[in-house]
């Protein structure tokens, strides 16, 4: 595995799940694979789960780990080529990437959507420069349009808790005070469309996700109708993806609190499990009673981030 940026990089999902459950049984099974190998984790944005779980995964495999918060301590980076660098940015990505790559064997990158240009975000301009100029295997720790480590952990969680062979899984939009990326819902849809589930996406009009990720999923604008009979509810906020109206890309079009997932929503489901990637804005995305209920999986879901990262890093080490 040379890159991990989307579901297709993982190959057959049943095989990937088998590897995940093997690791879950003994997460140190491959502890010698990463001996004298270094994993560099580069963060352009904040993180708790990804920062901790990916370090743990690298250590499970015997790797050394370096964590760099680009905007805290390193030089501010220019990402545009051809720019006269007379401003506040001291270093260009085109030097920084090969320099950083010289100190490690595998690179993880977190670089959220910037909402300045839909084209720059949806062509993964930053992540692809690391892939192109580092010469090392690169995995996404949430880039502009995808968060595949999260979605793989979500799939593992659904596989562990499902009570039927083909569960109904609903991805629901919910309100948020900020304009958040589409990376998490995009990757969740990416994975659910390849998994053996009955997948439904529900959101207000105007929030249509990119067709590249929606693919054959059913889109239902009536949230309560979408929730009927659901086995899993996956809640997330995202800003306008700019599909219906490109000029609205990155905007907040709606803060309708009737989309907040509460007990009345969960009552029409098939006693569904509740999921969210975290961090979550309580009583915006979901009410306290729903996220604290026995059917809430947000903690085991977050714990599975160690497993998804260990599988991905194992495959990258095996490809060195
Ligand atoms: C794993 C999720 C990371 C990120 N979440 C946020 O930026 C939430 C920030 C906030 O709630 O203020 C997102 O929505 O993509
Ligand atoms: N879910 C997730 O990736 O959390 P962090 O942003 O805290 O890493």
UniProtKB/TrEMBL annotation:
Catalytic activity, reaction form: N(2)-succinyl-L-ornithine + carbamoyl phosphate = N(2)-succinyl-L-citrulline + phosphate + H(+)
Residue ranges occupied by any Aspartate/ornithine carbamoyltransferase Asp/Orn-binding domain in the UniProt entry: 184-312
Keyword Amino-acid biosynthesis belongs to the record: yes
Transmembrane segments: none
Family under the similarity heading: Belongs to the aspartate/ornithine carbamoyltransferase superfamily. SOTCase family.
Function of the protein: Catalyzes the transfer of the carbamoyl group from carbamoyl phosphate to the delta-amino group of N(2)-succinyl-L-ornithine to produce N(2)-succinyl-L-citrulline. Is essential for arginine biosynthesis.
Protein name: N-succinylornithine carbamoyltransferase
Species name: Phocaeicola barnesiae
């Amino acid at each position: 595995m040379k890159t991990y940026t989307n579901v297709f990089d993982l190959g057959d999902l049943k095989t990937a799940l088998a590897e995940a459950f093997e690791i879950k049984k003994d997460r140190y099974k491959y502890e010698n694979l990463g001996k004298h190998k270094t994993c560099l984790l580069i963060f352009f944005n904040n993180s708790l789960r990804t920062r901790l779980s990916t370090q743990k995964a690298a250590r499970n495999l015997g790797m050394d780990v370096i964590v760099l918060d680009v905007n805290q301590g390193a030089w501010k980076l220019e990402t545009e080529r051809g720019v006269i660098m007379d401003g506040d940015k001291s270093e260009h990505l085109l030097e920084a990437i090969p320099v950083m790559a010289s100190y490690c064997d595998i690179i993880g990158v977190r670089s959220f959507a910037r909402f300045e240009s839909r084209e720059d975000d949806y062509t993964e301009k930053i992540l692809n420069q690391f892939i192109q100029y580092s010469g090392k295997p690169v995995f996404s720790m949430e880039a502009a349009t995808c968060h595949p480590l999260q979605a793989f952990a979500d799939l593992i969680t659904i596989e562990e808790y499902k009570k039927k062979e083909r569960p109904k899984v609903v991805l629901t939009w919910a309100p948020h005070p900020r304009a958040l990326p589409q990376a998490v819902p995009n990757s969740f849809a990416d994975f659910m469309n390849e998994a053996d589930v009955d997948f439904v996406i529900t959101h207000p009009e105007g929030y249509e996700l990119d067709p590249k990720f929606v693919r054959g999923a059913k889109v239902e604008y009536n949230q309560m109708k979408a929730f009927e009979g659901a086995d899993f509810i996956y809640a997330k906020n995202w800003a306008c993806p700019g599909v219906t109206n490109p000029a609205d890309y990155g905007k907040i079009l709606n803060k309708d609190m009737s989309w907040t997932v509460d007990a009345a929503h969960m009552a029409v489901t098939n006693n569904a499990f509740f999921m969210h990637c975290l961090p979550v804005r309580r009583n915006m995305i979901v009410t306290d009673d729903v996220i604290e209920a026995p059917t809430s999986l947000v903690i085991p879901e977050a714990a599975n981030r160690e497993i998804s990262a260990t599988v991905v890093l194992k495959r990258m080490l095996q490809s060195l």
